[in-house]
Amino acid sequence: MAVETRVSSTPVPVLSDESRLFVASQWQLMWWRFRKHKVALFSAIVTISIYLVAIFAEFLAPFPVDKYEARYTYAPPQGIHFFVDTEEGRKFQPHVNDYTVEIDPVALRRTFVVDPETVVPVRFFSTGEPYKIIGLIPWDIHLVGPVDKDQPMYLLGADRLGRDVFSRLIHGTRISMSIGLLGVTLSLVLGILLGGLSGYYGGTIDNIIQRVIEFLRSIPSIPLWLGLAAAMPPDWSPIRTYFAITVILSILGWTGLARVVRGRFLSLREEDFVMAAKLDGTSEMSIILRYMLPSFLSHIIASITLAIPGMILAETSLSFLGLGLRPPVVSWGVLLKEAQNVRAVATAPWLLLAALPVIITVLVLNFLGDGLRDAADPYSR
């Protein structure tokens, strides 16, 4: 017996842009608003790229962070060239140019000059010093490196010990970016927790927390940084110093967010939706996390993204002054300390390149925070 099948000819309704807004979720609205902010979208891509550099620093860096060559102290940068002229014509061969040593007749010291006639072959995905990807997987492939390991390759020059500045900048990305992320995470937890308790309960708890905030905010930031950093024992390991600096920056960074959270909680705890949740038997923690915090999510997101560059700048400043992270830890602040005296800058101005990633990171995080703040409130104009 044949079964007759009928195909419905009723057209599928196509929602207009206005109709899609009414049925879209909050996250869809945020994404649609965010992608209209082209600068913020580009900043998000750059930020993700910077964190990928931090994660895969060993693969991207040509050399280990502590490898040095005393023969090439303050060697100038070498640019990568992709073609070389041969008798058969122009040939694709990535390379850098070697150095020739000259004697400065005024200072009577040797200087390195890039020799355009001598070629040092360079290979992409070359075998180099072994390392572990994300600290787990053994590997020895680097993105770029010289074919002959005994030949020099300093894409951004060398420092006073003959260490590759380019490799150290890449490795410094991990410490500088992670200390900002960890510091902001701790500040966020302290700010929301203490600010929420202060605004939700009020009374004695509010008085105690507010007096602590006022005390911390009354202390000048720089002397407080110096005092807390100087209190760390000089014989501490780099890891302990790293976490101590993170805690110090977090202690200083939570007070502003706590004040804002307290003010919003004071106004929201009497709202009808909060009272309805209480009458429905919802726990106080659920009321805070599910109903009160999302109501000013835009400000929290903006505070997070704008606090990360502040943490990075604070760590850079402390390390530059010699009161933060110290060698052998490599961060952007530690690298900038190499360019602290005029003589080093005059001899090797490329040491100042450590300031470039700090500037780029601070700019893109500020643009990203601006876009996320607008996207978190999609109904605003």
Provide a descriptive summary of the structure in words.
The chain is of the alpha+beta class. The chain has 14 helices and four strands. It has helices at 17-23, 26-35, 38-55, 57-60, 165-201, 203-218, 221-230, 238-268, 272-279, 284-292, 297-320, 332-337, 342-347, 355-375, and strands spanning 81-86, 89-103, 110-133, 137-146. Helix 2 crosses helix 14, helix 3 (38-55) crosses helix 5 and helix 3 (38-55) crosses helix 14. The longest helix has 37 residues, at 165-201.
List the helices and strands and how they pair.
Blueprint: H1 17-23, H2 26-35, H3 38-55, H4 57-60, E1 81-86, E2 89-103, E3 110-133, E4 137-146, H5 165-201, H6 203-218, H7 221-230, H8 238-268, H9 272-279, H10 284-292, H11 297-320, H12 332-337, H13 342-347, H14 355-375
Antiparallel strand pairs: 1-2, 2-3, 3-4
Helix pairs in contact: 2-14, 3-5, 3-14, 5-6, 5-8, 5-11, 6-8, 7-8, 8-11, 9-10, 11-14
Search tags:
MetI-like fold; 381 residues; four-stranded antiparallel beta sheet; elongated; single chain; 2 domains; alpha+beta
Q: Please, what is the CATH homologous superfamily of the largest domain?
A: MetI-like
Can you list the strand order of the major beta sheet?
1-2-3-4
- Proportion in helices: 40-55%
Oligomerization status of the protein chains: single chain
Q: Give the averaged pLDDT, no decimals.
A: 82
The first-level CATH class name of the largest domain: Mainly Alpha
Question: What's the story with the biggest beta sheet?
Answer: 4 strands, antiparallel
Distance between the termini: 63 Å
List low-pLDDT spans: none
**What is the helix tally?**
14
Protein structure class: alpha+beta
Shape: elongated
Radius of gyration: 28 Å
Order of helices and strands: HHHHEEEEHHHHHHHHHH
Per the CATH scheme, the topology name of the largest domain is: MetI-like fold
Percentage of residues in strands: 5-15%
What is the tally of beta strands?
Answer: 4
At CATH level 2, the architecture of the largest domain is: Orthogonal Bundle
Number of domains: 2
